[in-house]
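Trying the structure run again after the queue cleared.
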Amino acid sequence: MSKFKQFLTNPAFQSEEDKYFEDQAIFLLQKQKLERIDNFNGYFDFLNNEYPCQIEHEGAMYKSVAHAYQAARYTHTHIKA
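Done. Tokens:
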């Protein structure tokens, strides 16, 4: 690594202002990540329509919201089950 790169990456040479702005940028990125849901995996798994749960609709039990939704599309009881 060149001496210039070492100078730029060495925290001892960063000014307090640089450290402040870097900390603020990291904080804003982490905050944005918490405020935005960009997938339904991990922590937000329960928001997925296929998430396994018990749903009761018109007296029948379904394995997920997606199952209940598909069954609700039909009026014939033999198709719903």
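The CA atoms of residues 57 and 68 lie 7 Å apart. Worth checking whether this holds up in the mutant runs.
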